[in-house]
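Students often ask why inverse folding is considered easier than folding. One informal answer: many sequences map to the same fold, so there is more than one right answer. In these notes we will look at a single instance of the problem. The structure comes first.
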C-alpha cells in the first residue's frame, strides 16, 4: 500500500490462505507506518481487495481473523460489512501468552446486496 502523495510504502493488504475448492480466502492487512494509522486509509484499501476476491477470483466467502483487543481492525471489518462469527479461544501465541481471535466473514451475496 503506497501513500498517494509521497509514494512511500506504508502498509500491506491482500488475500492469503486461499482455498480454491471451497472458494474462500482470508483477508489480511497491516499499517506498518504508525503515522498513517487511524486515518481511514486501510478501510479504503481493503475495498478493492474485497471486490477483486469476489469478482475476479470467484470467491464465495472472505474471512478475517483479528485479535480480540484490536478495536481499529474490528472497525475496519465492520465498515466493510464483515460480520463477527465467533471467538477462537487461545488461537495464537504472542510472547508465550495465548490470545483469542475473532473470526469475521462476508459472503459474496451479502457483499453484492450492500
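Output (designed amino acids):
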Amino acid at each position: 500500500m503506497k501513500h498517494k502523495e509521497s509514494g512511500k510504502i506504508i502498509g500491506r493488504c491482500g488475500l492469503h490462505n486461499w482455498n480454491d475448492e471451497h472458494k474462500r480466502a482470508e483477508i489480511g492487512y497491516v499499517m506498518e507506518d504508525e503515522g498513517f494509522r487511524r486515518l481511514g486509509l486501510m478501510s479504503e484499501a481493503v475495498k478493492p481487495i474485497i471486490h477483486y476476491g469476489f469478482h475476479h477470483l470467484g470467491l464465495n466467502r472472505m474471512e478475517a481473523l483479528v485479535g480480540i483487543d484490536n478495536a481499529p481492525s474490528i472497525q475496519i471489518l465492520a465498515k466493510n460489512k464483515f460480520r463477527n462469527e465467533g471467538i477462537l479461544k487461545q488461537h495464537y501465541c504472542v510472547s508465550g501468552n495465548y490470545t483469542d481471535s475473532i473470526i469475521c466473514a462476508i459472503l459474496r451475496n451479502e457483499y453484492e446486496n450492500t
